[in-house]
Amino acid sequence: QVQLVESGGGLVQAGDSLSLSCTASVRTFSTYVMGWFRQAPGKEREFVSGIGGSGGRSRYADSVKGRFTISRDNAKKTVYLQMNSLKPEDTAVYYCAAYWVGAGTWVGPMRYAPSAYDYWGQGTQVTVSS
User: Fold this and answer.
1) What one-character-per-residue DSSP string does 59-108 give?
2) How many degrees, rounded to 5, is the angle at CA 65 between CA 29 and CA 9?
3) CA 95 to CA 113: how far, in whole Å?
4) What are the angstrom distances between the C-alpha of 68 and each of 9, 80, 106?
5) Within 10 A of 38 (CB to CB), how many other CB atoms are there?
6) Cα 102 to Cα 114: distance, rounded to the nearest angstrom
7) Tens digits of residue pLDDT in 86-100
8) Which class for 49: exposed (0-12), middle (13-18), buried (19 or more C-beta within 10 A)?
9) Tell me: the pLDDT tens digits for 19-54?
10) Are the beta carbons of 37 and 85 closer than 8 angstroms?
11) Strand 10-13 relative to strand 124-129, pairing
C-alpha cells in the first residue's frame, strides 16, 4: 500500500513563496511518476505539475509555469513543489499523487487527469491573501 503524506501548506500573502513536500512510503520511489494537483472550492481538481521517476522530465500547467518548480529526491522518497510569486488564485488544497511506471527508462506521456493517478495524499491547504 502506497501512502503519500504532504506538508508545507499555509497562509501567505500575494507575491510570497511556499514550498510543499510529499513523502512516500514505497520500496522504490523512482518507479513512480509523481504529480501535484490542486482543488479550489467549487472547482474540479486540476493538474499542477508532474515529474518522472528519474527527475529528468517534468511538466507544468500553464497557470503555474515560470512560478512553480517541481523536484524530487529519490533517496528521501520525497517530491517537492516550490511555489514562487503566489497569487490569490493559487489558493486551493494541494494534493500529491503517484502512479507506477516500473523500472527502466520511462518514455510514456505525462498523465494529466486525476483519474490516471492511483495514489493520493490527504492534501494540504494553501491560502494566498491579496
Assistant:
1) EE-TTTTTTEEEEEETTTTEEEEEE-S--GGG-EEEEEEEEE--SS---S
2) 60
3) 13
4) 14, 10, 23
5) 23
6) 19
7) 999 999 999 999 999
8) buried
9) 999 999 999 999 999 999 999 999 999 999 999 998
10) no
11) parallel
